[in-house]
Amino acid sequence: MRAAEDMVAAKELFGRLAAPSPPLAATVRAIGSHARGCLAGAVQLPLDTPNWQVMRPSRQRVYAHPRLVSVIERLAREARADGWPGLLVGDLAQPRGGPMLSGHSSHQTGLDADIWLEPMPPRLLSEEERETIAARSVLRAGTRTVDPERFGPSHVALIRRAASYPEVARIFVHPGIKQALCAAAGADRAWLRKVRPWWGHDSHFHIRLRCPEDEPLCQDQEPPPEGDGCGAELTWWLSDEPWRPQPPSAPPPPLTLRDLPPECRAVLTAR
Predict the structure, then answer these.
(1) Which CATH architecture fits 2-235+255-269?
(2) Is the pLDDT of residue 1 over 60?
(3) CA dihedral (195, 200, 203, 209) positive or negative
(4) First to last CA, the chain
(5) Domain spans of the chain?
(6) What is the Cα–Cα distance from 246 to 269, expressed in whole angstroms?
(7) 3-state secondary structure of 243
(8) Which of 51, 54, 168, 237 supports an S-S bond with 197, CB 3.0-4.6 Å?
(9) Is the whole-model pTM more than 0.70?
(10) pLDDT digits (tens, 9 = 90+) for 91-139
């Protein structure tokens, strides 16, 4: 069976599992890195609470490390106190993490979450609405700058709140959103270091947690560079260079189980 598994793309193996695995050990859940890993002992985020609603639940990307669930609970509660109407939660991880059938290359260890920049409406969305409502960009059409009618002080407060948590290692946003955050931050700028510009992310922001200290199989990224990131780096992101079409190239081969930590094989087959 091992040889057969090693010939199959890992996204096919992990993407079709419907249930989490038991944790491999009491202190081990997140395994590997955000883009080459898996998740043992995942918990499911509730689809509905007074403070959030989960979007696209049919994707089965509503599982996470317990620490991420705690951060979402705290952010949703405290953001409501700040005046944000509630979170619309996008993709977390699959039941056992690992590579996904479509979309993200990260979100593999249960420590990543997408939060829409659209506030939760004051009613329970229907199943159809959750599957079909599109996340709206906050940029001016055809530009790399935010539309002040779609992005304002409440968005800044929400992202600042998330970045303030010590568990949060990075928050990914569109460069235009980073530009708006830099302009609105005022004297308190330390939190901006965590907010990283990246392609896409114009309709949501992506929270990434650092590895729990008691889970040695989890692999963190290097810390972000020093400073608030509002200088030369952001200028480059807002220039034409990052957005120029690249010459076509062959896509990299999909990850297989051999590309993931060996413990992920046990996560895949655990019953």
Answers:
(1) 2-Layer Sandwich (3.30)
(2) no
(3) negative
(4) 16
(5) 2-235+255-269
(6) 40
(7) helix
(8) 237
(9) yes
(10) 999 999 999 988 788 999 999 999 999 999 999 999 999 999 999 999 9
